[in-house]
């Protein structure tokens, strides 16, 4: 898991390894569904090596954002209740999968995405919702989530 404590103690590998673990089955399944549907498309377009690099870049970017958030934003928020924010861990592939989903959305904004397998939404609108939801959750102090997409 990524945390300020792990980072400060030299466990830099957690910047990437945290993107290969999940806290619960629902989190894992949601991320893998997004990775399968959107990753397949990106992999076909640019190749598996590019897909892996994009995944790792998304994971690294998400971990860095998580650390910055915990170091600078969490301690200064009013909702902070005395928890040591350096020990709060982050886990999951959401940032890496979101990088892949957003590239697909930006490349094919007119594609239709089926939210929860039934609600057709234009990809550009889904991308805006995904980014907006993540920004709102960060502002509220809840971290970044993965929206269930197919």
TrEMBL record:
Compartments where located: Membrane
Highest taxon in the source lineage: Eukaryota
Keyword field: Hydrolase, Membrane, Transmembrane, Transmembrane helix
Main location: membrane
Keyword flag Transmembrane: yes
Sequence ranges assigned to domain Peptidase S54 rhomboid in this UniProt record: 10-132
One Gene Ontology MF term: serine-type endopeptidase activity
Record-annotated membrane-spanning stretches: 50-68, 88-107, 113-136
Annotated Pfam families: Rhomboid (PF01694)
Membrane-topology descriptor: Multi-pass membrane protein
Gene3D superfamilies (alphabetical): Rhomboid-like (1.20.1540.10)
Gene Ontology cellular component list: membrane
Family under the similarity heading: Belongs to the peptidase S54 family.
Protein name (database record): RHOMBOID-like protein 12, mitochondrial isoform X1
Originating species: Phoenix dactylifera
Lineage: Eukaryota, Viridiplantae, Streptophyta, Embryophyta, Tracheophyta
Gene field: LOC103718227
